[in-house]
Amino acid sequence: GSGTVVLAGTATIQNVFITNSGTGSGISANFGTASTATIRSSTIGSGTGAYAVDISTTSGNSVAIFDEITLNGGLRLDGSAGGTLAASAVGTNAITSSQTAALTLDTVVADIGGITFDQITSTGDAAGMSLDGISGTGGITIQNATFNRSGTTTTDVVALTDLTMTGALTIANLDIDSTNTQSFAGVQTTGTSTSTINIGTG
Q: What's the pLDDT at 3?
């Protein structure tokens, strides 16, 4: 049904199907104290113009754990407003998005288990992914990523900024298509990154 599941603190969501038929996220949280959000073996869908899962912090040391999830909408994790937001994604995870960027990580600590997605498919004006200020002992691994950009946006499709995690960023199979006639980069790195970046095209 319509509406967003809002996490006010530590919570585990398992073996459920959640979709927002309105305009908000499927699951959202804005943690002001240390909390852990665990989502496993579930399918989460977003409403119009929103992310499927949208978690942010303002203070405290919080953790987001994903395991065997399917997102019909993008994933945003944002620790830039304060506190610490660590994340891991294990098992087989997939994102299909058309309303927002598929994956937006801002000021996130990649936990030792890493952040792994088997398939990311992103279409529309916002098709793409952004990693900004990623630290920690883990890495980010995406097996297959397909971005089909339309519309008039000028944001880069794969935007990478200040990656200092010990593990590597690996996108094994990257496919970028576009009917957008604006000027933007398919893959753009800015800032200072010390992480290894591996990108293949299948």
A: 85
What integer pLDDT is reported at residue 2 of this predicted model?
66
Spans in the chain with pLDDT lower than 70: 1-2, 202
Q: What is the DSSP string of the chain?
A: --S-EEE-SSEEEES-EEE-SSSS-SEEEEESS--EEEEEEEEEE--TTS-SEEEEESSSEEEEEEEEEEEES-EEEE-TTSSEEEEEEESS-EEEESSS-SEEEEEEEEEEEEEEEEEEEEEETT-SEEEEEEESS--EEEEEEEEEE-SS--S-SEEEEEE--SSPEEEEEEEEEE---S---SEEEES---S-EEE-B-
CA distances from 175 to 94, 117, 145 (A): 16, 15, 6
d(CA 27, CA 45): 8
